[in-house]
Design brief:
By secondary structure, the chain is of the alpha/beta class. The protein contains 4 helices and 4 strands; from the N terminus they run H-E-H-E-H-E-H-E. It has one domain: Rossmann fold, CATH 3.40.50.
Length: 130
């Protein structure tokens, strides 16, 4: 898997939504986001693209009839604990998400494969033309 790609296309998240729907027992989606920066000390404009991306991904899941929750700016240990208690995890391409996915899989969490079929990550949500 490529190194630390955090942004996937709309098509990628639609595939994740289809996989979740196919399980038949998933109705809620929690989107987790963190930063290496203190989110409260920086002006919101510095995270404008990140917020727009999260909103677009959240809207995609809402349009697929999932209840969407956001978990943003929590301590990494708390996020890892949260992810260890979910039924299904669709990790992003970052190192932290990959590490958590590897840790929670033996605990019975179903980890959705988030690579595209050719093994490369799709680059950006806004580049999708479907």
């Amino acid at each position: 898997m490529p190194n630390n790609v955090y942004v996937a296309t709309r098509a990628h998240w639609r595939r994740v939504a289809r996989q979740l729907r196919a399980r038949g027992n998933v109705s809620r989606v929690s989107l987790l986001a963190g930063s290496h920066f203190n989110l409260t000390d920086l002006a919101p404009r510095q995270f404008r693209k990140s917020c727009a991306y999260l909103a677009a991904v959240g809207q995609l899941f809402a349009d697929a009839n999932f209840t969407v929750r956001y978990r943003i700016g929590q301590p990494p240990d708390d996020d890892a604990r949260f992810m260890s208690r979910v039924g299904v995890l669709a990790p992003s391409g970052g190192a932290f998400a990959r590490m958590v996915a590897a840790a929670v899989k033996p605990l019975g969490v179903h980890v959705i494969r988030t690579e595209v079929p050719d093994g490369r990550w799709e680059a950006r949500l806004e580049e999708e033309t479907d």
